[in-house]
User: Which sequence fits this backbone?
């Protein structure tokens, strides 16, 4: 793994500032149980942000990732109503996520359509399907093991009293380490950077660009389904508006983490740090009873700042070219 870059150090400083400021201003904010609760504000969004980071580094984007979560949760609920057990319910959610990702990837790679246009369309398609099937209803009554996955701790799972790390957070941490190793310490990761920097040159160098793009959309669908399973277990219901607006928050996390929106540059370390920063900040605002619309405004402002500030930090005065004494050239 590479050493932390300038922007990642800035993120660490901002996280420390958030915990210091709100720790002094809000009673109980730094208590172990409050910190554990704050991770629920981080884990599910970070799961989809990991997939979004890989897509953006490769020059693509998936605006339907939150709608895929809603459809995957719906598939799990319908499977439960059909009498399926928990393993089949989870399989239905994962299969739905993969199917959504496959459709996105097929449209982008087979028909050479821009991913932003494709996923705007599939966002409406997937969210619309959930709304048509459910209407204003909700599916509830999920089995207890699913609730343990969404709300339980490693102490509950392992039988260790006092271990209050949420299962969701542990799952996110494992996923982040795995994705980070892939991106920063494997040939596949270097290929993604090459595709994002110059897809034409990457194709001429022998990289199967379309195959990698399709794989990234499949991975995004899988991570959306995994986040949907965790979120459904945590709230105990499936609703058509599940995770509405999370695609914006995932993009904000990724860009705030230092991933270049034009592709070819970024890190998983920065993405995870940005998820912690945004999650802990919004958790603190929730403790202060700040309204949801104000939080949305803050997320939008952070997205703008996240695109401008890293470029400002990378700016250096252009050096004047040094002139060398003229040399005589003989014919």
Assistant:
């Amino acid at each position: 793994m590479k050493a932390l870059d300038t922007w990642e150090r800035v993120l660490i400083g901002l996280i420390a500032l958030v915990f210091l400021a709100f720790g002094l201003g809000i009673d109980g904010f730094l208590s172990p149980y409050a910190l554990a609760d704050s991770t629920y504000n981080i884990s599910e969004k970070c799961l989809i942000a990991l997939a979004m980071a890989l897509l953006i580094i490769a020059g693509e984007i998936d605006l339907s990732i939150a709608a895929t979560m809603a459809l995957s949760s719906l598939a799990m609920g319908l499977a439960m109503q059909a009498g399926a057990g928990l393993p089949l319910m989870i399989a239905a959610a994962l299969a739905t996520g993969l199917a959504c990702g496959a459709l996105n990837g097929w449209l982008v790679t087979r028909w050479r359509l821009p991913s932003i246009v494709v996923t705007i369309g599939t966002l409406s398609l997937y969210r619309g399907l959930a709304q048509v099937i459910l209407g204003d209803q909700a599916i509830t009554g999920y089995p207890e093991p699913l609730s343990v996955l969404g709300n339980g701790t490693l102490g509950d799972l392992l039988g260790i009293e006092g271990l209050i790390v949420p299962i969701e957070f542990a799952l996110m941490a494992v996923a982040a380490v795995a994705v980070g190793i892939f991106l920063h310490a494997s040939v596949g990761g270097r290929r993604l950077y090459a595709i994002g920097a110059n897809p034409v040159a990457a194709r001429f160098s022998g990289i199967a660009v379309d195959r990698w793009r399709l794989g990234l959309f499949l991975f995004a669908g899988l991570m959306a389904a995994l986040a949907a399973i965790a979120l459904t277990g945590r709230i105990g219901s499936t609703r058509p508006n599940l995770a509405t607006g999370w695609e914006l928050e995932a993009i904000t996390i990724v860009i705030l983490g230092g991933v270049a929106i034009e592709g070819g540059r970024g890190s998983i370390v920065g993405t995870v740090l940005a998820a912690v920063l945004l999650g802990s900040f919004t958790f603190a605002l929730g403790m202060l009873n700040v309204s949801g619309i104000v939080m949305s405004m803050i997320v939008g402002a952070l997205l703008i700042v996240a695109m401008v500030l890293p470029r400002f930090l990378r700016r250096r005065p252009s050096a004047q070219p040094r002139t060398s004494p003229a040399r005589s050239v003989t014919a």
User: Anything to note?
Assistant: The chain is about 70% helix and 0% strand. The longest strand covers residues 139-140. The CA atoms of residues 38 and 301 lie 22 Å apart. The mean pLDDT is 92.
